[in-house]
Amino acid sequence: MRRFVRAAVFALAAVGWTIAAAYLVVIGRFAAADTRCGHVEPRVDMEGGWLVIAAAAVWAAPFVVVALWRRRRWQIAVAVPAVVVALGVVAEMFARPVAFCF
Length: 102
Fold this sequence. Notes:
The model has no long low-confidence stretch (mean pLDDT about 90). The chain has helices spanning about 1-30, 45-70, 75-95. Helix 1 runs antiparallel to helix 2. It is an all-alpha fold. It starts with a helix and ends in a 7-residue tail after the last helix. The chain has 3 helices and no strands.
């Protein structure tokens, strides 16, 4: 029973941590949008870009630290996709910058 409670607490913490990071990524993506008007190639505004990079790195860090500290297979299996997702979010931001003119 104790093992189940600990796993449930870990899962709830991971979900809460992910929701908070997703919120910051959405705000960062909005702030990273190119607001130049005219016929220009969109680019990432790094004021918001740094927020996305920081949110992705800080989100993945606890998963990696726990995996390195405990060295259990399931924790490593959680940490590796977390790093891949964080890198994917940042890569997608640079590959497809958002642009709007107001």
